[in-house]
Design the sequence.
């Protein structure tokens, strides 16, 4: 899914695109996506080159304090305004119109009670310890 479709999909489920705030969370997301490329909840759409979390989280858009950028990234603020995780767990600025996997994050533990969902058989719920 594209970045916006993934963001909308997570929102429709009551969540938001996951965004790692520390090394533990970054590793956790990497394990979930099994070394595949995946959208993260951060972008600089309409922000003049400043990456923030996507704003769909309960806290709203917030500065990205700890980063895991791959060497040489971010490198294309004109055409690549969304953050994606590459197979190594490092981040890359990607074209928001590209299609990648994604992970939804939910603001409360009770969100897991609705899974499995009949319309989304492949959804799984994970709780951070």
Sequence:
């Amino acid at each position: 899914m594209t970045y916006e479709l993934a963001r909308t999909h997570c929102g429709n489920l009551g969540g938001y695109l996951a965004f790692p705030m520390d090394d533990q969370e970054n590793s956790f997301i990497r394990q979930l996506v099994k070394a595949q490329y995946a959208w993260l909840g951060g972008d600089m759409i309409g922000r003049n080159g400043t990456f923030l979390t996507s704003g769909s989280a309960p806290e709203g858009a917030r500065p990205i304090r700890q980063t895991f950028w791959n060497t040489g990234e971010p490198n294309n603020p004109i055409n690549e305004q969304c953050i994606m995780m590459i197979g190594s767990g490092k981040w890359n600025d990607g074209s928001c119109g590209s299609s990648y996997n994604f992970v939804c994050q939910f603001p409360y533990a009770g969100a897991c009670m609705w899974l499995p969902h009949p319309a989304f058989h492949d959804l799984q719920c994970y709780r951070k310890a």
